[in-house]
Write a structure and sequence with these properties.
Organism: Anisodus tanguticus
Structural class: alpha+beta
Number of strands: 16
Radius of gyration: 30 Å
Largest sheet: 5 strands, antiparallel
Pfam families: MOZ_SAS, Tudor-knot
Strand content: 15-25%
Catalytic activity: L-lysyl-[protein] + acetyl-CoA = N(6)-acetyl-L-lysyl-[protein] + CoA + H(+)
Helix content: 25-40%
Number of helices: 8
Order of helices and strands: HEEEEEHEEEEHEEEEHEHHHEEH
Distance between the termini: 58 Å
GO molecular function, one term: zinc ion binding
Family: Belongs to the MYST (SAS/MOZ) family.
Strand order of the largest sheet: 4-3-2-1-5
Bound molecules: acetyl coenzyme *A
Length: 390
């Protein structure tokens, strides 16, 4: 695959304007605030800007107006053409000390310090024109209003454990709910979608990014979210979650499950599934995951059902019915039947299903089903089923 050139290109209209009388648009004589920005490195530009700032204060150029076009030093150390979208005053600054929210052509918009801006390149012609052709259907007033609300990205990054992801940020130390399980560095929080609507919706959006076949629910009031976290001195960092309807007609005990990609294949999916069945046991109900399952979801569930059922069959002496297995595990009878049928452990004799559990065959299947992963220590689960809270 060829490499992609992501270096932003200068727009034709972004060169500094030179006026006929030999001064640049920033009011400095041509040559002093020269037409083309000096190819200064990061440090050089900063020192130069500092002295320029001092010289230009009197000329009224600072603070820069919104709409001003100027060259801005990005984190690659290069200068790129930007337009000032917004400015905000520095709390401890002087009268003209602002930082600026700038719009790049090919990079994400961001707040920048004055030192990053090359004041030699300032165009003071403030662009009031409506430029966005995609919004032609909007009238100028509503477009201005739309731009006003959407122009500044208020959240720059989100931090999940060791990962920092641009565009959003969460400063909560833990999910906004009750910690219902803690074992070592792992904690599980129960978040009520009704009490924490935005948080619940954001979890759904996050899961949707990794799931094609699920419908996105906006009405999160009806759901509880079980958020699994790895905890350290800096807080509890989500590794995955599952959602669950507060009341399910279809006896679903899990609506949607997600392990965040950096944490997948570490056993958290198995843990979340096991946890959902422990909740069902506490409720005294059988449960099943909402269908359809994704391929990875099906793999994880098949593995869980196989291990749980075959472990019981291995230890159990005498006959056991599917109903008994269901009562012991909270796994719905249909799922037990399909799992055992898939493993060819069910025979139909004299009008009824019979489980044929040869120990050697069970061992072979158990081996193939893989590791059990992280165990849910039920003694550490402190939880009251939802209905009992009303
Ligand atoms: C009801 C529903 O919500 S269905 C939708 C399920 N969710 C999704 O598909 C969202 C995207 N996927 C995910 O979030 C995850 O892959 C999950 C939740 C399905 C599984 O989470 P994980 O934390 O990776 O599961 P875990 O580490 O416990 O592994 C479960 C088992 O599934 C299988 N598995 C999981 N991922 C893979 C993979 N990429 N390739 C092959 N097998 C896999 C393996 O058998 C694995 O066990 P093993 O590691 O011992 O071999």
């Amino acid at each position: 695959m060829g490499s992609i050139d992501t270096t932003p290109r200068a727009e034709s209209g972004s060169d500094p304007i030179s006026t006929p009388n030999g001064t640049t648009a920033n009011g400095l004589p041509d040559g002093e605030g020269s037409v083309h920005p000096p190819a200064a490195d990061a440090t050089g530009a900063s020192t130069e800007n500092e002295s320029l700032r001092k010289r230009m204060k009197g000329s009224g150029v600072l603070p820069l107006e919104t709409g001003t076009r100027v060259m801005c030093r990005w984190r690659d150390g290069k200068h790129h053409p930007v337009k000032v979208i917004e400015r905000r005053k520095l709390t401890r600054g002087g009268v003209n000390d602002y930082e600026y929210y700038v719009h790049y052509t090919e990079i994400l918009d961001e707040w920048v310090k004055l030192e990053q801006l090359d004041l030699n390149s300032v165009e003071t012609v403030v662009d009031e024109k409506v430029e966005d052709k995609g919004h032609e259907e909007l009238d100028a007033a509503s477009l201005r209003e739309h731009e006003e609300f959407t122009k500044v990205k208020n959240i720059a990054t989100i931090e999940l454990g060791r990962y920092e992801i641009e565009t959003c940020k969460c400063d909560l130390k833990h999910p906004p709910g009750d910690e219902i399980y803690r074992s070592g560095t792992l904690s599980m929080f129960e978040v009520d979608g009704k009490k924490n609507k935005v948080y619940g919706q954001n979890l759904c959006y996050l899961a949707k990014l990794f799931l094609d076949h699920k419908t996105l629910y906006y009405d999160v009031d009806l759901f509880l979210f079980y958020v699994l976290c790895e905890c350290d001195e800096r807080g509890c960092h989500m590794v995955g979650y599952f959602s669950k309807e507060k009341h399910s007609e279809e006896s679903y005990n899990l609506a949607c499950i997600l392990t965040l990609p950096p944490y997948q294949r570490k056993g958290y999916g198995k843990f979340l599934i096991a946890f959902s069945y422990e909740l069902s046991k506490k409720e005294g109900k059988v449960g099943t995951p909402e269908i359809p399952l994704s391929d990875l979801g099906m793999l994880s569930y098949r593995g869980y059902w196989t291990r749980v059922l075959l472990d019981i069959l291995k230890k159990h002496k005498g006959n056991i019915s599917i109903k008994e297995l269901s009562d012991m595990t909270a796994i719905k009878a249909e799922d037990i039947l399909s799992t055992l049928q898939g493993l060819e452990l069910i025979q139909y004799r004299k009008g009824q299903h019979v489980i044929c559990a040869d120990p050697k065959v069970l061992d072979r299947h158990l081996k193939a089903a893989g590791r059990g992963g992280l165990e849910v220590d039920v003694c550490k689960l402190i939880w009251t089923p939802y209905k009992e809270q009303n």
